[in-house]
Structure formats: structure tokens, C-alpha cells
Design goal:
Region (Disordered): 405-433
Number of domains: 2
Protein name: PP2C family protein-serine/threonine phosphatase
Transmembrane segments: 40-63, 92-108, 128-149
GO molecular function, one term: protein serine/threonine phosphatase activity
Largest sheet: 6 strands, antiparallel
CATH architecture of the largest domain: 4-Layer Sandwich
Strand content: 15-25%
Domain PPM-type phosphatase: 187-399
Structural class: alpha+beta
Length: 433
């Protein structure tokens, strides 16, 4: 499922907005415990599992002949589905052969056993026969179960273990994008949405704080979209997670490029944007690898509160050319300033120029800074501007405005006169820069 996270000073990254973080963690832990209990404790071996399935089939045969109304043929579909979930392919084939044998034994007896003196149509209405349509449905269910079991056999796992492994890997890699705490006045948010609502995306964010001085943020867009790019994104996120914060800022993108070239993927390229921030001074350095440009917001009177494009010369996309340089751009984030990083899925659309999409994004960001503020802005922007047919990511890094100290209260006879002269209406104070 698509996620977004927000990091506040001294706090944990936010959970999806529709589930409280404590409840989501509790439910996820209970789900994992239940899966492992079922697969490693309750059903410890394939032989035991196959024996249980066999007993269910035998029970169905007995009931189908003794009390037909209690044992419809469709009940065997439950056994087949459970077999596909808990059994390996070989044991599943044995179970399907057993089910076919049971049907071959029961169907002639059920369909040929009509109560004496009862019209055949009445007997059919009494449901003592097995409709051929049910048999075709059972065959279709068995075919789908075999296909799923074959795909799991390739992975070497069965049941929910394969899905649990991928989900746990994805969650652990996503945790690398969360900075548990940032000193005041710094804030970092990011939000990711995958194409078509898939659970895996080709975009990922890595963030790491090194000591008290340095923050690294890396936004990567892997070629492809959705689940098709998700596996490569998982691999790169794990590899690049070891580079972020461990290398000098000017060596990160070259090292990431070398690693991707070594993979020799047919679609092995990715765009990236790396920002290194000095948390003490606000000085930042941005380097790009074929990525859309930064947007920067200047909060002071000189900036006018607008978001402007900050071009980074950068280099080509990662994984295309060896031995390339990635020039960087420098700047300083003053109080009230912000940086906006995004992937092309946020600004690209059929029939629309890229520059137009960037202008739309800057306009939407400007409405947030002029209105509710930047808290929650990453989620709002990725939902408001992005299309549904591509992966979309937004990262917002900002420095909160400095609080102005209150003027000292006047003393003496001038207090009344100064109070009248310096009075400003609430609306004027709000509008003042």
C-alpha cells in the first residue's frame, strides 16, 4: 500500500494517516505471529499437513454418501485452496489426485441414487445429485491453485512466507528513509505513491543523519513503474542505504553509478537527486543524476514566498555511462526556507510539457506555504498533483522561521503614547512580511 511519513523533531516518523501508528504496529505484529504459529507450530511438516487434508477429504466422502445435504461438492474447493496455501507442489499434486478419486467414487453413487417413487425432477430439487457445473468450478479452482503454488515453489517458500518476506524487506528498507529526530528548526517529510496503487514502487527515499552536523537525503527513481520496478528498487535501496552518510557527498552518486553498471540490467538505469545539509549553518549541496530540478522556497522578504526552480547541472542518469562526474550546486537555507524534491511522475502527464508540470507543482506548494503551512505538505502535494499511472514521490525539507522576540514593554509616561502609536491590527500584522 502506498505510504507517507513525516519526521518531527524528537518524534517518530508518522504512520499512514488512516491508521494510528500504535494500532498499525500492534496489528502487524499479531499478523506475523499468527502466520508463524500456523506454519511452524500448528502445521510443522508437509506429511502432517497432507494427512490433515486427506482426513478432510475422507470425511467429505462419508458425509456425501450418508448425509448429502451436509456435504456439497463445492466444499472440496475449501480443501483445495487450503492445500495450495499450506502444501508444496508435490504434496498438492497428491491432494488433487485424492480429491479427483473421491469425486470419481461419490459422483456416480450420488447421481444414480434417487429416492424410490419420486419424480427425477423432484429428486434433483432435493439436491441429491452433483451438478456438472460444480465439477468444472472445482477444476478451475484447482488450476488456479496449482499456478500459484508453482510461482511459490520457484521462490522456495509456501503459504504466506513469501509475501511476509517481501513485505518485511520493504518495510525494513523504508525505515532507512526515516530520520528519528532532527534538531530545531529542521523538518523533513516524504510521501510515496506507487503506480495503480501497487504495494511496491520504483521510487524510494533514503535519509540519514550523521552526527550532529550532517543530513543526507537521496531520492531515486528506478526505470519502470509499480511492481515491475519494485524488485530492482528494493535491491538498490538496500545497496544505496549503505552508501548514504558513509561516503563524502561528492562520492555518493559516482559510487551509486558504478554499482548499477555492475548489475548489467537490461533496464538498468535510475535518476537520483542527492542533498547534503549542514544542520548548523543551513548550507546545502545538491547533486543530480538525470533528475528533475529542485524547487526552493525563500521565506524572507527577498524571496517573496515563491517556489523557484534551482537548476543543478548534474550528470546523466545512473547506470548509463562509466566514469562520469556529477557536479553539484550549493546554497544556504535561511530561516523560513525550504527545498522540494520530487520524481518525474509528479510533474509529467500525457500532452503536457515538463516545465508546465513543474510550474503546477510550484503553484500547489505556494498555496500550502501561504495557507496551512508545510506540515503534511508532502502527502498533500503527491495526492493533489500526481497522476495514478506512475510512481510519485515528494520530499520536503525546511527550516522553520525564527521566532521574533517580543518588544519590551514601555515604562513611564510614554507608555500610553507609544502604545497608541505602535498599535497594529491583527490583519495588518498577518499581512506584514
Amino acid at each position: 500500500m502506498p505510504t507517507d511519513s513525516r519526521t518531527a523533531p524528537g518524534g517518530r516518523a508518522g504512520a499512514p494517516t488512516w491508521v494510528p501508528s500504535g494500532v498499525a504496529g500492534w496489528l502487524d505484529e499479531r499478523r506475523r505471529r499468527l502466520v508463524w504459529f500456523l506454519q511452524l507450530r500448528l502445521l510443522p511438516s508437509q506429511t502432517f499437513r497432507l494427512s490433515v487434508a486427506t482426513a478432510l477429504v475422507v470425511l467429505w466422502v462419508v458425509l456425501a454418501l450418508a448425509v448429502p445435504s451436509w456435504a456439497p461438492a463445492s466444499a472440496l474447493s475449501v480443501v483445495v485452496v487450503l492445500g495450495g496455501y499450506f502444501l508444496r507442489l508435490r504434496q498438492l499434486a497428491m491432494l488433487l489426485f485424492l480429491v479427483a478419486t473421491a469425486l470419481a467414487y461419490v459422483v456416480p453413487r450420488r447421481n444414480g441414487d434417487r429416492p424410490r417413487g419420486v419424480d427425477p425432477e423432484v429428486a434433483t430439487a432435493l439436491a441429491t445429485t452433483i451438478n456438472p457445473t460444480v465439477l468444472w468450478v472445482l477444476a478451475a479452482v484447482a488450476g488456479v491453485v496449482v499456478l500459484i503454488a508453482r510461482s511459490r515453489e520457484r521462490l522456495g517458500v509456501h503459504g504466506a512466507q513469501g509475501e511476509s518476506m517481501l513485505v518485511e524487506l520493504r518495510d525494513r528498507l523504508r525505515a532507512q528513509s526515516r530520520v528519528t529526530s532532527l534538531p530545531e528548526p529542521w523538518h523533513l517529510e516524504h510521501a510515496i505513491r506507487s503506480a495503480y496503487g501497487d504495494g511496491f514502487a520504483g521510487d524510494f527515499v533514503l535519509a540519514r543523519r550523521s552526527g550532529e552536523e550532517r543530513l543526507d537525503v537521496l531520492l531515486v527513481d528506478v526505470s519502470g513503474k509499480g511492481t515491475a520496478a519494485g524488485t530492482r528498487a528494493l535491491l538498490l535501496a538496500g545497496a544505496y542505504g549503505g552508501l548514504v552518510g558513509a561516503l563524502p557527498s561528492d562520492r555518493l552518486l559516482p559510487a551509486a553509478n558504478d554499482y548499477l553498471l555492475e548489475q548489467r540490467w537490461t533496464e538498468g538505469f535510475a535518476t537520483a537527486l542527492h542533498v547534503t545539509l549542514d544542520l548548523r549553518t543551513g548550507a546545502f549541496e545538491a547533486a543530480s543524476a538525470g533528475h528533475p530540478p529542485l524547487l526552493r522556497h525563500r521565506g524572507g522578504p527577498a524571496g517573496g514566498g515563491r517556489w523557484v526552480v534551482t537548476e543543478v547541472e548534474g550528470g546523466p542518469a545512473l547506470g548509463l555511462l562509466p566514469d562520469v562526474d556529477f557536479p553539484s550546486a550549493q546554497g544556504v537555507l535561511e530561516p523560513g526556507d525550504a527545498l522540494l524534491l520530487y520524481t518525474d511522475g509528479v510533474v509529467e502527464a500525457p500532452g503536457r510539457d515538463l516545465a508546465e508540470g513543474i510550474d503546477l507543482l510550484a503553484g500547489a506548494a505556494g498555496e500550502l506555504t501561504a495557507g496551512p503551512g508545510l506540515v503534511g505538505s508532502a502527502r498533500r502535494l503527491v495526492d493533489a498533483v500526481a497522476a495514478e499511472d506512475d510512481d510519485r514521490s515528494v520530499v520536503v525539507l525546511w527550516r522553520a522561521p525564527a521566532l521574533r522576540p517580543a518588544d519590551p514593554a514601555p515604562v513611564g509616561p510614554a507608555a500610553g503614547r507609544r502604545g497608541r502609536a505602535d498599535h497594529v491590527s491583527p490583519s495588518s500584522r498577518t499581512a506584514a512580511p
